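Q: I'm writing a short explainer about Tautomerase enzyme for a general audience and would like to include a description of its predicted shape. Could you first generate the structure from this sequence?
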Amino acid sequence: MPLLTVTVTPGAFDPSAQARLARGLTEAAFEAESIPPEAGPRARGIVLIQELAPGQFYSAGEPADSLVRGVFASLQVSAGVLDGARKARLAAAVQAAAEAAAPDRSRPVVTSLEIREVPEGNWAQNGRIARLPEITATARFGHLVDALAPARA
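A: Of course. Here's the predicted structure. Afterward I'll give you a sentence or two in plain language.
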């Protein structure tokens, strides 16, 4: 159930490229979280993209709108869903998704991904606290479903 908040640099991605970026980032997160290719679990995959206004991106204190295609993302995920290997694969997949979405190769694509692990008991959905076993049952994290399933008698 990825929730990605993404800021892109001014003019880096036109609307169709932003749509490609959203699809690529969503797929990268689904893969990292091992969410199956089914409509139900995937319906909660959310990407929010905002583009900086011209003149709002600086590097080394200098205007840098036209220097790179920047993708700066934050992923909120329940603690315990991603281990180190999954995080590393996700970082590589985010870079690949951003490069694939770029409309051309006139400037380098630069990504930054912050993975925010939300501690157990600190994620509220639809007005109530959602715990990892409940989130796992909904999202069907492939690597956690059996481990967090309630014990059967």
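A: For your explainer, you could say: The longest strand covers residues 69-78.
Q: Perfect, that's easy to follow.
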